[in-house]
Amino acid sequence: MKYPILAGLASALILGACGSSVEMPEPAYEDISAAQSAAGMLQERLQARLMSAMQEGGIEEAITACSEDALVISAEVSAETGLEIGRTSLRVRNPANAPDAWETEQFAVFEEARASGVNQMAMQYSEVVDEEGSHVFRWMKPIFLGDFCATCHGTDISPEVQAAIDAVYADDQATGFEVGDIRGAFTVRRPL
Length: 192
Fold this sequence. Notes:
Layout (H helix, E strand, L loop, with lengths): L12 E3 L5 E3 L5 H53 L2 E5 L12 H15 L9 E7 L2 E11 L5 H4 L5 H10 L13 E10 L1
Antiparallel strand pairs: 1-2, 3-6, 4-5, 5-6
């Protein structure tokens, strides 16, 4: 069983086409550091945009801003850092953020680690994987639901906020979380 790495590198074994194990290289410290930095940039910019929208027009404006600006901000950070960065969740608000198979697997590992009492602030996972014959660096760090985020993602959403969510996200699945739950994750990918 694998567990999220808490500070550093992890090796990964994958099954080759013939069923044999092929050892992949360790993720480079520089890649992990760059992923952490990019996730911090993305989080900071998204929070700043949401706070600005809240001040301009309340929670409804923040919901609209999130739907219109989050992917744009992710693309900007990706372009600046040279990493493919975004956010994903098992219960998405925006279908464009749906997890791939690798990300889905990491969510299961993070949930198990959380249930085992692993320090939330230290959770992250990285590895080099094979994607169609090429090595790709992958990194993921869970996003835990905080008090403020529960306004739009929690279990007790006001009718006005729910109406604003429904107006922007027809197939929203991103409500019903408790504070401290894994709401989603920052995810980074970079072909090597």
